[in-house]
Structure formats: C-alpha cells, structure tokens
C-alpha cells in the first residue's frame, strides 16, 4: 500500500494577535493529521481547514496516511511520525482498538495527541474534535422515517469496526425503535471498498425480497454510488447519505439522493489544529492525567463541530455558503 503525504501545508501568513502583534507560534512547530485513507474528497475539505489554521497560526502541518482504507498502515504511519516527536498529532482512527496503544505510547513520550473525525475513546487521547455521531444518526433517521411514512425496508452501508460509523448506525436504530414498521434488513460492510456499495445497490434493485425501499449511508461516499445505480436504472428510492461531497450534492439536485447529513470537516481541521497548537502554550505539567475525571481540567473531553441536514429545500443556500467560505 502506497504511503505518501497528501499535501504538505506550509503556512504563508501570520495571525496577528491584538495583544502582542504576532502569533506566539513558529513555523518550526510541526503538526500532523494521520488518517486511514487519504484518497477521499472529504479529506480535501478537512485540509482546507488545516490550511487556514496553519496560516493563522504560522505553523506547519501535513496530512498523511495510506491512499485507500488501511488501518494497519495507518498505525505504522502514526508510529513513525510519533517517533519524530512532533509538536502534536491529530488522528482519525480507522480502527480505534488498533490505534489506542500507539496513541497511549505517544502520550507517554510527551507528544500531544487528539482525535479528529473518528475517535479512539478507549485511548489516552487528550480530547476529540468532531461530530456527535449518535445524534447525526438520529438526524438521518428522522428524515428517513418522514420520507418513508414510517414504513419500509432499509439497506445500510458502513465500514465495520470504525467507531464513528457504528455510532451513527446506533443513532439510526435508537430513533427507529419508535417506528417498528421500518426495518434495517441488511447492514453492508464496505471494508473500505466503494464498489461494494454499487454492487449491493444494484443487487437490491434486481433481487431483494422483500424489496428495499431505502438506502442509508454511515460514511461519505456510498450515497453517490447508490445514486449512480438509480440514475442508470432511471429508478428512485429514498436515499439518506452522509457528508456533503460534490457528487452527493449533485445527487440531491438530480433527485437520486433524498438528503444528506452534512458534517463540518473544514471546522474539524481548523479547530483541531488551533486547539492542538494551544496545548503548546498551556504547557500542561503532564499529559498522563485523566482529564475526563478532573473537575478543574483545562481540557474538554469532546468538542462537537456540528452537523446539518441538506436536501433540495436548502441545497442552493448550502452551496452558496460553501462557495463564499
């Protein structure tokens, strides 16, 4: 599996603080975001946030990871970067159990580590910056129930073992308990391969008994794969996608995707880097404390960057807002 830097983000400007006229950081501070799969338009949006924060702070930051979903390679990348003792590491944990020992080892060596987008809650990471994934699942479930009129068979897509995706599915299931005639009849493990979503959607249209009335996505790209199948078949189903990559928004505009739960990846990248860099100013006496149980902790446990439902009713406004940013 090829490992490479997706983009080296070298800051080109200074963030001028009113109190002292210059940023307290320097370009010598090197930060990393380590992800399980760099070849995704989702990470382009995160990178935009990182880029903005790096310019504001005058620090250096890079996003690194395997090209396609590979938690074991991500673990090796993390281990290699942690050994260089960078100023800090952000990590989106492809496999939270696999990453936990590496995160703990880096913390023990004095390297600040936070999680972004996908948490490793059982580790000693300092805090998590991202979506409340259970609530995001419930947001999608409300739209699903409304469009299905509380009755129908549903196929769900996720990559098994990735905690943020599992939490979203838990959110769906919890809310759908109040709609017993909506049944998730199959949960498809994508294993990081989007072709599986395309093939399973095609198979569902051809062979599923009882028929599938709706598709729901726990991750950001299977929705567009389902939309492509529907487009080729000139068919319509209820499709609740995840995230707001351009192909998903196109699917909403064309009528093949009903709605999508849009996270804020730019905000995750921007706030993640700014908060991680702040740790170099706070100068915690040790990183090994249990900050979650400390009532006087200077650190949060979780920072919710929020999510919003996007459908045809607000698609134009959403796109205009993104363009303005």
Distance between the termini: 34 Å
Uncertain runs with pLDDT below 50, 5 residues or more? 1-21
Q: Tell me, what's the shape?
A: elongated
Query: What is the level 1 CATH name of the largest domain?
Result: Alpha Beta
- Provide mean pLDDT, rounded: 90
For the biggest β-sheet, the strand order reads: 1-3-2-4-5-6-12
The CATH homologous superfamily of the largest domain is termed: Response regulator
How many runs of DSSP E, i.e. beta strands? Answer: 13
Residues in β-strands, percent: 15-25%
Can you describe what's shown?
The protein has 325 residues and is of the alpha/beta class. It has two domains: 3-131 and 264-306, Rossmann fold (3-Layer(aba) Sandwich); 133-262, Response regulator (Rossmann fold, 3-Layer(aba) Sandwich), CATH 3.40.50. It is 42% helix and 20% strand. It contains ten helices and 13 strands. The strands form two sheets. It has a seven-stranded mixed beta sheet with strand order 1-3-2-4-5-6-12, with helices on both faces. Strands 8-7-9-10-11-13 form a six-stranded mixed beta sheet, sandwiched between helices. Helix 3 (96-108) links the parallel strand 4 and strand 5 (113-116). Helix 4 packs across helix 5. The protein is elongated. It starts with a strand and ends with a helix. Mean pLDDT is 90; it is low at 1-21.
């Amino acid at each position: 599996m090829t490992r490479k830097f997706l983009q080296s983000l070298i800051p080109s400007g200074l963030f001028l603080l009113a109190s002292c006229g210059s940023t307290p950081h320097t370009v010598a501070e090197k930060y990393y975001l380590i992800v399980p799969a760099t070849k995704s338009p989702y990470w382009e949006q995160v990178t935009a946030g990182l880029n903005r924060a790096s310019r504001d702070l005058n620090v250096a930051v890079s996003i690194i990871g395997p090209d396609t979903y590979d938690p074991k390679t991500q673990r090796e990348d993390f281990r290699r970067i942690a050994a260089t003792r960078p100023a800090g590491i952000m990590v989106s944990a492809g496999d939270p159990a696999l990453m936990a020992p590496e995160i703990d080892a880096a913390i023990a060596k004095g390297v600040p580590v936070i999680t972004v987008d996908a948490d490793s809650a059982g580790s000693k990471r300092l805090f998590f910056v991202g979506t409340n994934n259970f609530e995001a699942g419930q947001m999608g479930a409300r739209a699903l129930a409304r469009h299905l009129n509380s009755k129908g068979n549903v196929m769900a897509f996720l990559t098994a073992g990735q905690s943020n995706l599992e939490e979203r599915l838990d959110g769906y299931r919890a809310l759908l308990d109040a709609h017993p005639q909506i049944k998730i009849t199959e949960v498809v493990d994508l294993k990081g391969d989007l072709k599986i979503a395309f093939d399973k959607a095609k198979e569902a249209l051809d062979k599923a008994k009882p028929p599938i009335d709706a598709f729901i996505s726990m991750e950001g790209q299977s929705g567009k794969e389902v939309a492509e199948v529907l487009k080729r078949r000139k068919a319509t189903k209820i499709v609740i996608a995840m995230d707001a990559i351009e192909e998903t928004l196109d699917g909403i505009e064309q009528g093949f995707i009903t709605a999508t739960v849009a996270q804020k990846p730019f905000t995750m990248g921007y706030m993640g880097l700014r908060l991680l860099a702040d740790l170099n100013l706070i100068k915690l006496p040790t990183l090994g404390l249990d900050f979650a149980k400390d009532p006087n902790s200077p650190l949060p446990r979780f920072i919710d960057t929020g999510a919003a439902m996007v459908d045809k009713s607000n698609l134009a406004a959403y796109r205009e807002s993104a363009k303005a940013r």
